Amino acid sequence: MTLAILLSGQGGQHPAMFALTADRPEAQGVFEAARPLLGGTDPRDLAASGEGLHGNRTGQILCCVAALAGWSVIAVGKPGRAVVAGYSIGDLAAWGIAGRFDAATVLRLAAARAEAMDAASGEGFGLAGIRGIGLPVLDPLIRRHGCHLAIRNAADSFVVGGRRDALDPLCEDALAHGAQRAVPLPVETPSHTPLLAEASTRFRALLAEAELHRPPPSAPRLLSGLDGAAVFQPEAGLDKLAAQISRTLDWAACLDACGEYGATRVLELGPGHALATMAQASLPDARVHALDAFRSADGVLDWIRRG
Q: What is the pTM of this model?
């Protein structure tokens, strides 16, 4: 049996995002490591306030805190054979869960990653979600409107990036070509598109200076969030970690890789349940849950122990 651990990207932050981990002794070090990066504010207090949770820098830090705090609790249950993959900023958190970076390094890099993206992103850009048509139909529309494919979630589900004034007509065009849904997203950063090439370059240099650790034998197998490939050589994996800021993510390939590694259970760590929903469609024979769906940490641990 294999447990696939999926780490959320931004968008699902909410006031109760640390409800299951806030008081767990295993997670205290993660919360303390985040405090200096948040102006001295405890991430639990910041989340509970409900204010400013979706700013790029704050959001990326909080998503990594949620993933690392969740794993610190899950690890107590000794889940055995596991693989880990992260969506967007979750890809960085995966390096912490896989034992490659310590928590302080992950959180520091999350802040730096967001700063690099903000510096590279101009005004008037964003993302849109399009579902219900395949890439052979969508790709010519993307090119026609001068946009870029950002994420492939499934064979008929995509995120595209570009100028705001191009995304609206692209969505209209997609609907006219049979899309079930096509809407601009409340995001101002054209993540995972060539528009952020400068951010990839800057982040690559920061990653080269970060201290790497040898993962313990019990650490989950790390899958690249860019293409689902297993990370065996840290240098190649770090290059992908930097490149994914400005290259299309193939999340569908990450879910396929989880299936290839024999995932019988899937657990999403982080705010929300978007990845769990996608995993249910991609891995119909697996038992899928999001941490947010449990009422207590003990309930999660019991689910893991029961296999």
A: 0.96
